[in-house]
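Agenda item 2: adenosine-5'-triphosphate complex prediction
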Amino acid sequence: MGIVAQLKNVDFGYGDRLILENISLDIPKGKVVSVMGGSGSGKTTLLRLMCGQYPVNKGDVSVLGQDVVAANTQQLYAFRKRIGVLFQFGALFTDLSVFDNVAFPLREHTNLPESAIRDLVLLKLHAVGLRGASALFPSEISGGMSRRVALARAIALDPELIFYDEPFAGLDPISLGITANLIRTLNDALGATSVVVTHDIHESFAISDHVIVIANGRVLAQGSPAEVEANQDPYVQQFIKGLPEGPVKFHYPATDLQKDFA
Ligand SMILES: Nc1ncnc2c1ncn2[C@@H]1O[C@H](COP(=O)(O)OP(=O)(O)OP(=O)(O)O)[C@@H](O)[C@H]1O
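Presented output:
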């Protein structure tokens, strides 16, 4: 089993504020990997670093054999073509049809003739069950369908690595289940590796081979869903069980209640 992406002892901050501290993690090849953690724990930031969007303060980032830290602009451009990204809320171009949304990366990054683009777009739309919706516009389809179109667009160039940023946000339970299953099946059909940033424990444990939990800028646990579930770290337990009390407090730090009401 190879490693498709690796962070080693990475520190990163926006300006002076350190967001990730001494992060080391491996993304195993061919797997669906979930990155979990509370709001603001740095999950999206982690994806951005793996895309080479920001330079790290310290440490190494290697993705698809590319040293992302040392890469020049040309190398980063070539490297990004091999990665598919489903952005948070999977925003579609509202003035383009479903077909043209999926065709966009193909037109942008290849010199394929229009007939080949048509075939590829219809195949990708078929894979997400929406070939019949190709002529519709984003305003004419549901949120769940939009997410699937965004998925088809993310895999248009047959990426080796796919990043999903909160792919389940705002979906009803049925669309959520469909999207989760698609992430799994598309990963396996493409022979790709998928990294899914999410809060959704249930769905991500169901489709993931590997789970990484981050909190306070550090990796708290990583392993199979069963291994992470068995991890006794109090934060990991609070997070996966959704407990209201634990290391993350319900109450913002305050003086004694008696003092305020004395
Ligand atoms: N471009 C930016 N400039 C400055 N600070 C940022 C920037 N992007 C994110 N942050 C801050 O970095 C921290 C981590 O953000 P990030 O989006 O990576 O977290 P997250 O775990 O993905 O959160 P969520 O689940 O809420 O999306 C947050 O405190 C956020 O406010």
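Discussion summary: Residues 14, 19, 37, 39-45 surround adenosine-5'-triphosphate (CB under 6 Å).
Owner for follow-up: CH.
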